[in-house]
Amino acid sequence: MTTASTAMPDDRLDETHDPALRSWVAFANEPGADFPIQNLPFAVFRRRDAAETWRGGVAIGDQIVDLAAAASSDLLEGDARRAAECARGETLNALMALGREPLRALRLALSRVLRMDAPRAAEAAGWLVAQAEAEYRVPARIGDYTDFYASVHHATNVGRQFRPDQPLLPNYKWVPIAYHGRASSIGVSGQRFPRPHGQVRPQGADAPSVVPSRRLDYELEVGIWIGMGNAAGAPIPIGEAERHVFGLCLLNDWSARDVQAWEYQPLGPFLAKNFATTVSPWIVTLDALAPYRVPWTRSADDPQPLPYLDDDGHRRRGGLDLHLEAWIETKTMRESGSGPVRLSRANFRESYWSLAQMVAHHTIGGCNLQPGDLFGSGTQSGPGDDEGGSLLELSHGGRRPLTLDNGETRSFLEDGDTVILRAWCERPGFARIGFGECRGTVLPAIER
C-alpha cells in the first residue's frame, strides 16, 4: 500500500532544460558532447603542474567554469553568488550543505551567462580553464561511504553461482542491503593501484595463504553524493529524500573476488573491497537529470515496499533512465593504439531499489547523513547476457572467459588493464547529457 505525496521527486523542468539552448563555448554544442549547456556538472580542479589551489568548477563543453573567479564577479547575484562562494574551497562540502534551492539558482545563473549571445559573455570567458589543462581530485571530503546492493539482476546472477536453488536470500526484496565501506581509499578517475594481497583459501586447501588476488574485478556502479544532511534520530521520509541528494557520478568498486569468497561470512566484505574505489570527477546534479525521470515500478508478484519506502510520487517519477557502460583497455590495446572495447552495458532504471529508497532506508534507524557522504548503488546489471556489471557475471565466475575484439581473453582483470565507465541520459525532445569517464588502472602487486 502506498501513501500520497506530491513532494517527491523534486524534478521540475525550467528554462535550463530547453534543448534549443546553445552556448558560446563551441564544443558544448557538438553532437554527443557530454557537457552541453543543459548539463553543467560540478567538480574540484586545478591547472595541472601549476602552483594553484584546488577549487570548484562547472563543466561546459571542453572547458571548466572556475567558480572562484565567477564568485568574484558581479555577474552572479543573491543565492547564485552565495553558492559560488561556497565552491571556492578545496572541497564542495559547503556547497552541498546549502540544499537544492541555492544550487538551482547557481545552475540557472550559469546557464544564462553561458548562452549564445549572453550580453557579458566576454567577461565570463575569463572564468574558463581548458579541461585538457586540468587535474581533478575527489570532489568532497567523504565522512562516510555506504555501498548498496540495489540491482536484483546482479544479486541473482551472483547468487546463482553459489546458491543455484535460492539465488536471492529471503530479505533481498524487502530491505535495501548495504555495507559500510572504506572512504580513505576512494580516488578520482585516473586512479592507479597495485593488485591487492589478501587471505585466499583455494578449493581443497587445508589452510589459507596470503597472496595477490587472482580474481580481481570491476563493478559498474552509480555514485550518489549526499547534499544537505539530517539530524541524528530524524529519519528522512521518502517524499523528501531527493532533497538530500546533491548529484550523481560513476563509481567503480574494485573487488578481489577470491579474497571476498573466503572472508565475507558472517559480516560481509572487508579487505576484498577496501583497497581502492574510483569515482568520476564530475557530479551531475538531480536538476540536470530532471527530464530523464521515469516511473519506479515493482512487479505485482514481488513483495511491495514497506510504507517508509513507498509513496505515489516515488512510483510516478522515482526511476532514472541512465545508460551505463563498462569498457576495457588492456596493455596490449594501449601499445597497439587500437583503443578500448566495451565489456558490458546496463541501465539504472532497472535498479530494484531507487535513490530515494536508499536515502530513506539509510536513515530509518536515526542515522545522520552529512554533506559529502557517498553511496554506491551496488553493481548495476540488466537482464541480458551482455548486461552484467562485473566480470564475475560476464565470465560466469571465471568458467567462461570472454574473448575480446583483439583475441585476448579475460576471466578477471590482469595487470595493466584499464577499466573505463561511461554514462549518459538521452530522450527525444531533450539534450543528451553525459557523465564523463571513470577510469582506473591495475598495477602489479607490490612484493610482500
Please characterize this protein's 3D structure.
There is one protein chain. The chain has 448 residues and is of the alpha+beta class. It is 18% helix and 25% strand. The chain has eleven helices and 26 strands. Strands 6, 7, 8, 13, 14, 16, 17 and 22 form an eight-stranded mixed β-sheet that branches. A five-stranded antiparallel β-sheet has the order 4-3-2-1-5. α2 crosses α4 (100-114).
Present the secondary structure layout.
Elements: E1 42-47, E2 55-60, E3 63-66, H1 67-71, H2 78-86, H3 93-97, H4 100-114, H5 121-125, E4 128-130, E5 134-137, E6 145-148, H6 152-162, E7 178-180, E8 186-188, E9 191-194, E10 197-200, E11 209-212, E12 216-217, E13 220-226, E14 245-252, E15 255-256, H7 257-263, E16 277-279, E17 284-285, E18 293-294, H8 312-317, E19 319-320, E20 323-329, H9 331-336, E21 341-347, H10 355-363, E22 374-376, H11 391-394, E23 402-403, E24 409-410, E25 418-425, E26 433-443
Parallel strand pairs: 6-22, 8-16, 9-26
Antiparallel strand pairs: 1-2, 1-5, 2-3, 3-4, 6-7, 10-11, 12-15, 13-14, 13-22, 14-16, 14-17, 18-19, 20-21, 20-25, 23-24, 25-26
Helix pairs in contact: 2-4
Overall 3D form: globular
Strand element count: 26
Q: Residue ranges: pLDDT <50 for 5 or more in a row?
A: 1-8
Largest sheet: 8 strands, mixed
Number of discrete helical segments = 11
**How would you classify the helix and strand content by structural class?**
alpha+beta
* Average residue pLDDT: 95
Tell me the fraction of residues in β-strands, as a range.
25-35%
Keywords, please?
five-stranded antiparallel sheet; disordered N terminus; 18% helix; eight-stranded mixed sheet; alpha+beta; 448 residues
